[in-house]
Design goal:
The protein has about 240 residues and is an all-alpha fold. Helix content is about 65%, strand content about 0%. It has a single domain, classed as Rhomboid-like fold.
Length: about 240
């Protein structure tokens, strides 16, 4: 039994290295240029959340940063950039900040800045724009018109998209399978708009991870963000963790 478990443990250890070692290398080498994305997004999420709790800031955030399924498309497109950092629906403020801080710091080190941003924006945009389609689909697959006023998922859609992308690119099979399965189950059990948007964002991250690197080679090279073996800048030397 112990002998049979050893290959699984070695595989999980290797997957843990692939996911966390780039962060360790960046900290060890003081390459904080590979870790700034998480803190930057966390500051923006914090700023918008605090502003939304003030009397003058609330109407501004509501008008320019919060999207709803019932909004006309021009209004959604206008609010789309800031909605990536807007207060998340049904999510505690502190948890929203912690998830963007941890996941974006991790995936920036693993994937590179440009790739992490592109995937996050694509996942968030797909999830937000899918909201109107969920209303149009109607129950039981979609949502009723009474949900057209609900706020969209906020930064959590971008988080699950980039995490799913990293899981597929690093061949962390269990995580790549668990994320879509969890959000599909969430849609069935919990329902609601955020659950559906999380599922769309997760599937967007998975699909983008299947696109060959050569499709983005020009963009990444122009930005000084060339892909390494797993889509990130290669670390100076890979060590065996004991």
């Amino acid at each position: 039994m112990v002998t049979g478990a050893q290959p699984i443990l070695r595989r999980l250890t290797a997957q843990g290295q692939a996911l966390f070692e780039p962060v360790y290398d960046a900290v060890r080498l003081r390459r904080y240029d590979r870790l700034w994305l998480g803190p930057a997004v966390a500051v923006l999420v914090t700023t918008l959340a605090i502003a939304a709790r003030t009397r003058p800031g609330h109407p501004v955030i509501s008008r320019y940063a919060v999207t709803h399924p019932g909004d006309p498309l021009p209004a959604v497109l206008l609010r789309l950039p800031l909605s990536l950092f807007a207060p998340a629906a049904l999510l505690p403020f502190w948890f929203a900040v912690m998830q963007v801080l941890l996941v974006f710091s991790l995936t920036q080190a693993v994937l590179g800045t440009v790739r992490a941003v592109l995937v996050a924006v694509a996942g968030h945009s797909a999830a937000t724009l899918s909201a109107a389609l969920w209303i149009a689909a109607r129950p039981p697959v979609g949502l009723g018109m009474q949900d057209a006023h609900l706020a969209d998922a906020g930064p959590s859609a971008a988080v699950v998209a980039v995490l799913a992308y990293a899981a597929v690119r690093l061949r962390i099979g269990w995580l790549a399978a668990v994320l879509p399965a969890y959000h599909a189950t969430e849609v069935v059990v919990v329902g609601g708009l955020p659950s559906r948007e999380h599922l769309v964002a997760t599937l967007t991250g998975v699909l983008l991870a299947l696109v060959p690197d050569r499709r983005f080679a020009g963009i990444l090279a122009a930005a000084g963000d060339p892909p390494g073996p797993s889509g990130a800048r290669p670390p100076p030397r890979r060590r065996r963790w004991r």
